[in-house]
Amino acid sequence: xxxxxxxxxxxxxxxxxxxxxxxxxxxxxxxxxxxxxxxxxxxxxxxxxxxxxxxxxxxxxxxxxxxxxxxxxxxxxxxxxxxxxxxxxxxxxxxxxxxxxxxxxxxxxxxxxxxxxxxxxxxxxxxxxxxxxxxxxxxxxxxxxxxxxxxxxxxxxxxxxxxxxxxxxxxxxxxxxxxxxxxxxxxxxxxxxxxxxxxxxxxxxxxxxxxxxxxxxxxxxxxxxxxxxxxxxxxxxxxxxxxxxxxxxxxxxxxxxxxxxxxxxxxxxxxxxxxxxxxxxxxxxxxxxxxxxxxxxxxxxxxxxxxxxxxxxxxxxxxxxxxxxxxxxxxxxxxxxxxxxxxxxxxxxxxxxxxxxxxxxxxxxxxxxxxxxxxxxxxxxxxxxxxxxxxxxxxxxxxxxxxxxxxxxxxxxxxxxxxxxxxxxxxxxxxxxxxxxxxxxxxxxxxxxxxxxxxxxxxxxxxxxxxxxxxxxxxxxxxxxxxxxxxxxxxxxxxxxxxxxxxxxxxxxxxxxxxxxxxxxxxxxxxxxxxxxxxxxxxxxxxxxxxxxxxxxxxxxxxxxxxxxxxxxxxxxxxxxxxxxxxxxxxxxxxxxxxx
Length: 596
Hints:
- The chain is mainly β.
- It has 2 domains: 9-27 and 435-593, no CATH class; 29-405, no CATH class.
- The protein has 6 helices and 26 strands.
- The strands form 9 sheets. Strands 17-26-25-20-23 form a 5-stranded antiparallel sheet.
- The two termini are 39 Å apart.
- The model is unreliable at 1-31 (pLDDT under 50).
């Protein structure tokens, strides 16, 4: 992940050139790669992939066929890396086999080893992503938005990706919380709930019927924010075992043993280079698995931050993956339904382990894994809570990423969550926050997770920048039109310290909020600054009209405003007694789509 980027007060206050000390934007969040694998029972296995025209297998790593998840019918996924690239010897035999016929090739957990780290008090929030299998029922949360519980009603859950409902830092006990569906299997409205959100090109629905053949697809491995090329550190994954699933009534595909006689389904493997033979990175025993014998547990989902030496150093204490110098590897996982470790007491809370729990390696004194995030905190049903009718919900894929995948209002929060909690409206039900479809949009409101020194506001509810010496966050709001010809746009700044200097900065680019001074910056390079004005005694100041003409005569071509262009504005102001001691702060930001 990218480090925080800063620019200096002297750079911001002087000159009319772009603020060049900010690195170029990594692009909007939806340009990130999303990589996933599929369960061997689904109908997409054996179908021709988009682009590469090779048959899809359960050993392949896939991308959305349209490049990124999109609302509406989608093409089939494209193959990013075949099982041959992962070095799986069974690929040559299995390529072209149809779904529902086990072929010893299933990749059922995935990571590039560069996921986001969990922190006890994160300065930037992370987002947990997961999938469930077709038998998951979920626990009903806040009504009115898609979640495991609603999508399970229409048998649409197993091809979807869900995200957490703002979890606290771990370890998280089994306190009921919610989840939100953010990426759909097929991108088409559910026939039961009517919810619509961007899709992956998979087949739905997938009714919870036993047997080897599923009517729909099931996501089985996941990595969000994937590297654009084969990752330098290699690809980490796990292979399916042969354990019987009490609900599916069929055993697993036995992929681990089929691809190497000594491999176990509880192991984490690593392919260092394309086509190289996989090696064992983490043994099942190091994770608290296979206590009851080799192959008795099946690792089913994976989050991993490898410390760079390529050798697994298991975590033995909470957050021992954070210290500089010689940190432990942060490895989190879930286990498949049917694993022997399910029902055993975890090493932290002493609770019976469920297939929906996110686990970490054992702590001293226990042979079993520890619960890092209890399934109940993901809005999942469990036997221990009495919410699962037969077996606990099974987490099939995991990832932990800093950047949201779809974030059109640039607040660092997934759009689906904004809609779910009421921070954004979606009156037309198209899965896009309504403010993102307007010519004027206010964004970059300072929430606690992004505030540099605890000077943010709760989410949802923040309505300005980070709090300043007045006890409130500075605001920016647009008035006038967005017409280039009229040039009557005004940017009104308020809740600033009285009689202090301020300027407006502008950029065609935005990014996830970044700490700057006492505030959060959402603009990214190139950034241009307007003239300075001082706030009045009430902490208010207005820039404009004439902002368009000024930009077109003072800024380079990238800073010129023309009909059809989009620019983003944010206010900077002096605040010597501010809460964080940096003497400067920022308002929220405004996006303007300019018209003729």
